[in-house]
């Protein structure tokens, strides 16, 4: 396992400042701005390199990734029910964990950069593909397809959510402009990527610190879930990576995506579609437990697992 | 100067509901409203505003009493059970009754 990536120290700073009840607060617009840069940068980076690839070959892998996005919440749901959670809460948490966290993905990209591992250029496309299916599975699990759900409005909300629009938009811009076209703006999006990620993680630490008391209040099951579900899901991610024949770097990223839990798209969609689910449960698990676990321990662990994958 | 009495309906609720509330207002016939970001604390927990899905909004509508009551009961019926929401009505005096 490599040395600690300096960007995660910013998360620790935010967490420590939040727990100490420091005056430190970032204006909401700053969080909005840095997450916008991260999403666009990740999208564009993928798009630039997609321009040099035959797209047809990606179709099979893309279908596999969508299958993984459907499978993860379906596997999580019964386990959460066994843990004693009501149907709506189990479905909502399953959706959060089936969907992905772009912040965690960004930390994994930064980690691969630190340890000098290459990865397939199309990984950002998989982020988009994984973001959405689990949310619909979660809603189905909660609702059983009942007529109370306003599917049209919901589909619009999920597909036009901030992260999907910016990631896809970035992919297209990168794809159309190509590396030469992007030369003028790569200073902001690529050279500053780690600095922007550091600010983002500072704010994430502050946010997570506010949810931490919930992690203890909601009992041992949620805590255990937040810590144990990610490595198990990472194994599934590594399995899919092996099916696609991804490189070690690509496998680490796919494992990280499988292990990560959404805290932007899924909470918003679940609040609308399954309002009786308690948002504090799913947000606490994904933000205060799983996100820190993944960036500190998970990503290096998935790297180790990818290195020791049978036949890998 | 003649003043006219109207109702002011104030709703404090989750920011995520904004779009749906605005749609309700349109459908039930409100002619104007004001929405501001808000923060505070209630029995569903602290609402801090510094993160997009934790924020609150305060919605204010000035209208005829009958519409204010229709809006209030619509909101109560649709949102009280599952969302953090409070609402209250007050009498206010306005100068241009045709606007409200």
Tell me about this structure.
The complex is a heterodimer of chains A (312) and B (100). Chain A is mainly alpha-helical and 312 residues long. Chain A has one domain (6-307): Na+/H+ antiporter like fold, CATH 1.20.1530.20. Chain A has 15 helices and no strands. The model of chain B has no long low-confidence stretch (mean pLDDT 88). Chain B has a single domain (4-94), classed as Alpha-Beta Plaits (2-Layer Sandwich). Chain B starts with a strand and ends in a 6-residue tail after the last strand. With 100 residues, chain B is α+β, with helices and mostly antiparallel strands. Classes of the chains: A mainly alpha (312), B alpha+beta (100). The interface between A and B is medium-sized, with 19 and 15 residues.
Secondary-structure map:
The complex is a heterodimer of chains A (312) and B (100).
Chain A: H1 6-19, H2 28-50, H3 58-82, H4 87-98, H5 102-115, H6 123-131, H7 133-143, H8 151-159, H9 162-181, H10 186-191, H11 193-217, H12 220-244, H13 248-259, H14 265-273, H15 279-307
Chain B: E1 4-14, H1 18-28, E2 34-38, E3 40-42, E4 45-47, E5 56-63, H2 65-79, E6 85-94
Antiparallel strand pairs in B: 1-5, 1-6, 2-5, 3-4
Helix pairs in contact in B: 1-2
């Amino acid at each position: 396992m490599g040395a600690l990536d300096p960007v995660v120290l910013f998360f620790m700073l935010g967490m420590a400042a939040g727990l100490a009840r420091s005056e430190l607060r970032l204006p909401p617009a700053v969080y909005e701005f840095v997450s916008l840069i991260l999403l666009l940068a990740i999208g564009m980076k993928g798009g630039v390199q997609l321009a040099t690839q035959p797209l047809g070959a990606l179709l099979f892998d893309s279908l596999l990734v969508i299958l993984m996005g459907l499978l993860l919440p379906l596997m999580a749901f019964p386990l959460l029910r066994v843990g004693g959670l009501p149907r709506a809460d189990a479905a909502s948490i399953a959706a959060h964990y089936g969907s992905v966290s772009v912040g965690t993905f960004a930390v994994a990209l930064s980690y691969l950069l630190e340890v000098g591992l290459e990865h397939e250029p199309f990984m950002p496309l998989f982020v988009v593909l994984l973001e959405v299916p689990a949310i619909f599975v979660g809603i189905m699990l909660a609702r059983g397809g009942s007529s109370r759900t306003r599917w049209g409005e919901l589909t619009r909300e999920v597909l036009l959510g901030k992260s999907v629009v910016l990631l896809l938009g970035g992919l297209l811009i990168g794809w159309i402009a190509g590396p030469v076209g992007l030369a003028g703006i790569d200073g902001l999006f690529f050279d500053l990527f780690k600095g922007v990620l550091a600010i983002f993680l500072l704010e994430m630490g502050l946010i997570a610190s506010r949810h931490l008391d919930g992690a203890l209040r909601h009992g041992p099951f949620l805590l255990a879930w937040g810590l144990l579900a990610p490595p198990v899901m990472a194994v599934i991610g590594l399995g899919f990576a092996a099916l696609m024949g991804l490189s070690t770097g690509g496998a680490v990223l796919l494992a990280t995506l499988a292990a990560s839990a959404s805290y932007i798209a899924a909470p918003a969609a679940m609040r609308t579609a399954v309002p009786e689910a308690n948002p504090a449960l799913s947000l606490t698990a994904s933000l205060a437990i799983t996100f820190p676990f993944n960036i500190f321990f998970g990503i290096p662990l998935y790297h180790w697992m990818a290195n020791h994958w049978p036949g890998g | 100067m003649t003043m006219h009495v109207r109702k002011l309906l104030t709703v404090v609720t989750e920011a995520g509901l904004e779009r749906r509330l605005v749609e309700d207002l349109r459908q039930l016939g409100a002619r104007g409203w004001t929405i501001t970001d808000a923060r505070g604390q209630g029995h569903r927990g602290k609402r801090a505003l510094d993160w997009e899905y934790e924020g609150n909004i305060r919605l204010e509508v000035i209208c005829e009493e009958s519409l204010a009551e229709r809006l209030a009961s619509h909101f109560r019926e649709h949102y009280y059970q599952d969302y953090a929401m409070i609402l209250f009505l007050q009498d206010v005096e306005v100068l241009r009754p045709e606007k409200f």
